Q: What sequence folds into this?
DNA sequence: ACATCCCCTTAGCC
DNA sequence: AGGCTAAGGGGAT
């Protein structure tokens, strides 16, 4: 099946969207990107203005794909809203068509808990290990893929099994959080449409979920496009491109290496939301990808 | 209440 | 090649 895209009204770049670091489960093999979405194996490619896809089930139709890639977002309008200066302007020029993916909240939550103090290749490995060990095997065109485990699958696991997935110190946190979700002590879907601060603090009541993970879950899975996650890369980008928006003493304070203190996180994140506005999350993602591609080697 | 320090597993990276 | 770091969180001081 395929979706016809108009470059002007519906700009979309599959490559930028899947390689910018927001999703961990896609892999490029030849001309196609292979992934697993909502328990279905999917392969996608983009060529000559068309988005073509095949999947393990009929329920993966054009609407399913459009929902996942947020093709309904008015990207030209969003980009014009966040295009506040030359730096973000350059990021937009470089990666126009990058869209926030609408991930499953549960999978997104565990994925970004895995991303705690880990680099992207390591996170990909953890998620692949979890899926192979606790997920379900599905095939598409003879290729084997594994669905992401359900909350009950991980809640029923033991620490040793999780540690074999290379989760390290994250294993205990992920087990506890999985139990809370599986036992319906915590309802992720209930956060959809909730007030930003409220939804964030409720997420942070989960073990292993701090400000950063909460912001990522809100942005990447619960449609809170104002969320502005701050990781070590965003700190670098702020120091390089936006230091003029902060006091000298603050710039010096966060210039040292290491993770970001709780209050410093809040200062940077609220700057992002205030400066870029209601679509700050999109600005964050363009800057994140741009920063990683430009600043690599400078670090 | 607030800030700072330190530890947490593992593997990718230089 | 081995030390440092990684889409951070939590607990102690």
A:
């Amino acid at each position: 099946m395929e979706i016809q895209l108009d470059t002007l009204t519906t700009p979309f770049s599959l490559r930028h969207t899947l390689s910018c670091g927001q999703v961990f489960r896609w892999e490029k093999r030849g001309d196609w990107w292979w992934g697993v979405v909502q328990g279905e194996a999917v392969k996608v490619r983009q060529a000559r203005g068309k988005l073509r896809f095949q999947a393990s089930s009929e329920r993966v139709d054009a609407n399913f794909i459009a929902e996942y890639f947020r093709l309904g977002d008015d990207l030209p309008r969003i980009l014009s809203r966040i295009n506040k200066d030359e730096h973000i302007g350059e990021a937009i020029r470089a990666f126009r068509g990058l869209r926030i993916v609408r991930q499953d909240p549960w999978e997104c939550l565990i994925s970004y808990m895995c991303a705690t103090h880990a680099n992207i290749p390591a996170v990909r490995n953890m998620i692949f290990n979890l899926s192979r060990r606790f997920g379900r095997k599905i095939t598409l065109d003879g290729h084997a893929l594994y669905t992401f485990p359900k909350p009950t699958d991980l809640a029923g696991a033991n620490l040793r099994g999780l540690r074999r997935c290379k989760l390290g110190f994250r294993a205990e946190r992920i087990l506890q959080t999985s139990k809370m979700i599986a036992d319906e002590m915590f309802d992720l879907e209930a956060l959809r449409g909730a007030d930003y601060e409220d939804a964030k603090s409720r997420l942070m009541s989960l073990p292993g979920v701090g400000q950063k993970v909460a912001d990522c879950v809100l942005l990447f899975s619960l449609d809170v496009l104002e969320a502005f996650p701050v990781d070590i890369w965003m700190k670098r980008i702020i120091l390089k491109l936006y230091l003029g928006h902060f006091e000298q003493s603050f710039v010096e304070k966060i210039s040292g290496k290491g993770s970001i203190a709780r209050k410093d996180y809040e200062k940077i994140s609220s700057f992002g939301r205030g400066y870029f506005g209601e679509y700050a999350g999109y600005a964050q993602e363009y800057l994140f990808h741009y920063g990683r591609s430009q600043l690599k080697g400078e670090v």
